[in-house]
Structures are given as C-alpha cells and as structure tokens.
Amino acid sequence: MSHVADLGYTRSNFYANEDKTLSPEQLQSVLHGLVKRIDSRTPVQYIIGNWDFFGLTLQCREPILIPRPETEELVERIITTNILQRISTPRILDIGAGTGAIGIAIAHQIPSLTCVAIDINNEAVSLASLNARNIFGESCGCRYTCIHSSFDQFYQTNVYKNKNNKDDDDHLFDMIVSNPPYIPTAQLASLDPEVRLHEDFVALDGGEDGLDIILQLVRGAPALLRGDGPRELWMEVAEHHPAVLEQIVPKIAGMYSTNILMYVCMYVYVHAWYVCVHTSDEYNNCAP
Q: 54 by DSSP, 3-state: which?
C-alpha cells in the first residue's frame, strides 16, 4: 500500500510511521487504482514496482518478466559449484537479461566477476541497467553491462572478432547463463492470466517444442567460451527438455570440425529443471 500510495516510506520503517494516514483524495485514488489493477489480474510485482531476488531488491516493470524463485535456484546452483570463484577475474554472458536478475545476482555474490548481458527488448536493457546501477553504484560500469542485441547478432559479432584476433579473448566468456524462452507455443494460451495478460510473450515463447532459443544457445556456446575456462552453459528449461537435450547435444557437437565434446548435466530443484551443457576436450566432474 505504501508503494502504491507513494507515502515516502517502505515496509521496513512502517511502524515508525504507523500514525500517518491517507487523505480522502489519496485513499480514493489508491483504492480505485488498486481495484482496477487487481481486477485486470496485474501481478503484485508490477503494482508495487519491485521484487526481491537472491537477497536483492530489483525494480519491476510490465511487461519485463518478473524474477521467480525457480530462477533463484539456478543462481544458487551456479554459485555453489564454486567454479567461477576459482577464476581470478571471471566473465559471464547472461542471455535474455530481463530485469538483470541472474547476472546481477551472480556478480553480487562474486566481487571479482564481470557480466555482459543481452536482451532484444530495449525496455529490458533499460531496466536491467537501472537495477545494476542501484546494486553496484559507481562501480556498475566495471561490473555489469547490458546490450540491446539478439543472440544471433551478438554471436556473429563475437565470432568475427575471434577470427580476426585469435590472441585476444576479451570478447569471450568463462560461462554463459540464461533463462531462455522455453514454453511450447501451444501452452501459452493456458498460462495464468497474470502471466498471459501482462508478461512479454517473446520472453516466454520457445517455439513448437520450447527448444528454439535453447538450441541456438547450445550451437553457439562453444565459439563464445574461453578455451581455458570452465566452458559451461547453464539454462533453466522445461521438465521434458533435459532428456531431449541429452540426445541432441552430442549430435550438435559432432557437427563441429574440431574435436569438441559436449555433454549435459541435469539438475532438478524444488520448482524447476536446469541443465548445464559442458563443452570441453574431456569429461569433467559433473556431480549434481
């Protein structure tokens, strides 16, 4: 209520202001606006304008996807592997930034890490950049950058750089992370109204089998990962995807002219499914 009414204080200092009351004009405006937005099934995150993710408060704006608990589990899994912490200055790529939740949360947990994020939605780029500034302050430019780009555009640019300067890997990454669109198109109509009516369908629609963007990432990842890094692609996926990817990924690896080995590790947490696609010359330890 304090957010919607713009009273100038938040829940953390509510009791210090409990004697403050709404004017009749504020009350009428607030109640009318609340009823209208609730009736339209607007998610509470859009109504109050922010939401907590992995201990950080991020601004939320319609129609950019709302940070969810299942994506927190993806971040937790990446952090607890301690793979990035073993690199002096790790660099990650976050594909489909949205609010910036994944990349910002990982960078916040690992102070030496920098994150480059991309999104095809200009509103998402603006929002992720704002959230990064709120979290990192003056050091934001050194820690987090969000770029307006599709994955294909970003891939082509970086592959070109790699071909023309193979001794410089500043445009490559130790790890790629993503919460890509993975809902099959036919299932979009059955989503809850809060999602169907208010969140960006482009960020949800994974195509006929939900794998359109996921397979783009799997095919493109090897060319964007540093040769001496962990070479991992972490993604949140649908329940049926891990088994499918276990069959497809080795075939994709076989399409490369070099001797690239790719294999899938599957993780299931409380809310969702995740995969880690390893790209390397030999099998690494991949304990769940």
A: coil
